[in-house]
Automatic annotation (TrEMBL), chain A:
One of its GO terms (cellular component) is plasma membrane. This is ABC transporter permease. Keywords: Membrane, Transmembrane, Transmembrane helix. The lineage of its organism: Bacteria, Bacillati, Actinomycetota, Actinomycetes, Kitasatosporales. The chain crosses the membrane at residues 20-40, 52-75, 96-121, 151-173, 180-198, 234-253. It comes from the Bacteria. Pfam families: ABC2_membrane_2. One of its GO terms (molecular function) is ABC-type transporter activity.
Automatic annotation (TrEMBL), chain B:
The keyword Transcription regulation does not apply. This is ABC transporter permease. It comes from Streptomyces pseudovenezuelae. One of its GO terms (cellular component) is plasma membrane. One of its GO terms (molecular function) is ABC-type transporter activity. The chain crosses the membrane at residues 36-57, 308-329, 350-376, 396-417, 424-446, 491-512. Keywords: Membrane, Transmembrane, Transmembrane helix.
Amino acid sequence: MRRAGHAEWTKLRTEAGNGWLVLGVVALTVAVGAAVAMTSRCDAVGCGEDPARLSLTGVMVGQVVVAIVAVLMVGNEYSSGMMKTTLAAMPRRLTVLGAKVCVLTAVMLVAGTVAVLASLLTGRIVQPDRGFTEAHGYGALSLADGPTLRAAVGSVLYLVLIGLLSLGIAMVVRSSATAIGIVLALLFIFPILAQVVADPDWQRHLQQISPMTAGLAVQSTIDLGKLPIGPWKGLGVLALWAAGALTAGGWLLRARDA
Amino acid sequence: MTATLTPSRAAARPARGGFAQLLHAEWTKFRTVRGWVASSVGAVLVICLVGLLATAAGNQSGPEGTSALPVGPGGQAVNDSFYFVHQPLQGDGTITVSVSSLTGVVATDPKSSRPGLAPWAKAGIIVKDGLDQGSAYAAMMLTGAHGVRMQYDYTHDIAGAAGRATREQPVWLRLQRSGDTVTGYQSTDGTKWTEVGSARLSGLSATAQVGLFVASPSVEEKTGTGTGFAPAVATGAFDQVDLGGRWSAGSWQQRQVSDGAGTSGSYSQTTKGQAVATGSGFTVTGAGDIAPVVGGPATSGVRTIENFLVGAFAGLIIMVVVGAGYITVEYRRGLIGVTLAASPRRGRVLVAKALVVGSIAFVVGLVSAAVMVPFGGQRSESNGFPVLTVPSGTELRVVVGTGLLLAVASVLALAVGTILRRSAVAITVVVVGMVLPYLLATASVLPDGASEWLLRVTPAAGFAIQQSVARYEQVVTVYAPGSGYFPLAPWSGFAVLCAYAAVAFAVAVVLLRRRDV
């Protein structure tokens, strides 16, 4: 398993473009978070804005780069025929999948932590000038604050889980193009559909099963009662999606010819 | 010894029709890849399935929750509810009146109320084809905050003089019917008259209902968490009612036109519509509006035709995958070398590809929209949600626009795919560029200014072509992306998307020419 992990790490490290993509996760997350922090403002007590969530909005953009990295880890091997070599060298196929999961998790934990901490730091610097002050009922963003810490840890885990979901889907369809299409559709179509459905119950259920909407509930620090699903429960929904995709991918990897 | 060289058949074929041949070659490539054909057919099914899911929910308040909306002479859904004091006028004639006050009451909660007047509360005179909702009309009115107005057939609004009415300084209004034409006048003293405008109401029946009316749309209430609308009524005092022409012996009748007040406003528990005769006129209290229906918080129980096309987002992702794959697969399999050797004018190869994939995406969008708009409407109405009727020209633009949207998106994906030569990145760039800004702008994550900005400068502006609801100066609502209003007009928004596609395509052609395969 250690050697399998090392092999996957070498493949990920030496593939041209992956370094840029991982940098892209951090840069896009921080840049979009900063842009939102600089445009949003709170004008009075009870403005209903969530400063932690606003600074972490960039995760919505960073996640798609995570998805690209994960999809390419599998898609490139199939398109180049490398997969045959990989499986010949490591005939225990679930070990291959496990190694990919471990390497991706480790890389995204590091990239996600950097991105999330930088986003929160930007928010902490920018937001007091945008009306998020003691007078309006907001303290500066701080990891010592329980909900903010949960939002930070949850956002990092969210990015990791999006990566694992994408990895699983790529394992199932074996093509980067199709896989990224399915991942983006899963992420974006649920929230758009939820806006259109007029019945509030349906809307709530759609939001509860949507990987993105439910997963990002973990970023909320105020008005938790108004969320369609609790913060950790929501992240759990995303974890179920990821587990489902990985199970399907692992089963097919074992069952199919390469 | 002589040998006769027979030219090969390919070389013997004349070079003319080169582009048609190229197009045929590209079409053959598309047609013979099972995945692409299946995806295109699948896209139609997905657009329809997602659309059906969006209309599956039933209205919890039951079939009588919101009744079907009347349709005006222009073909769009309208609100037509007001308190009407009327009598029939045969043929030509005039009505003149002075309005000496316009006041209002806003319900703050079911039991209590406060004084307040909607900016577009209306008190005035009207010539109306009949008492049916949605019938043609022309009216002169004093409004809460926008002075004297002449309005006709729901969507037309002509400004008169600004100002308010007082007992000492009333506002005089006059309507004159002559044939199909109704002309509106206003005056400050009842002797010197100024024409405000005139309206041609084709087919106005010989006997029109003419009289006094008062209406008040609900009042916008800004709270910390958003914008709400509170029911309001208005009361207008009319004096010196003067009639000219063949009237039916001076017996006035009064009624509320429409039982429900549509989406524009309603009576609260403590108010009702009425007309009380005073010395030389009436004091009339009414709620509702005579205006086109717009999107926004007040129309939450009403569906628009673009609601049935929400599946276009899913179809768009599929066609983007196909469009990007159409070129990146050639790079991956090395087919691009053969393609470019067979057709050395590389720009034309890309044009042929764009034509093929764009046409297919156009057909996918057009067919699914042409199915979903009527079918979704039918389903929605049977589930208790009325559909906001729009003029047939708008409906055609939305249906054809869905096809164009998918076509341009797939060409954009083809161009980005050529530039990047990597399908996953190209697909993500296009989908994220088009869909994520739309999602961020409509999910009320961002402040309004930032949302509108996103829908002006990103390729997501193109979704404006699916907007069926129109903006009207004379109707107050939340004209924001969240309630279906794009900051750019439909075709300008689409032009922004086209500009992105054109630039990407130009860069792709230059790179394809310059690069080695």
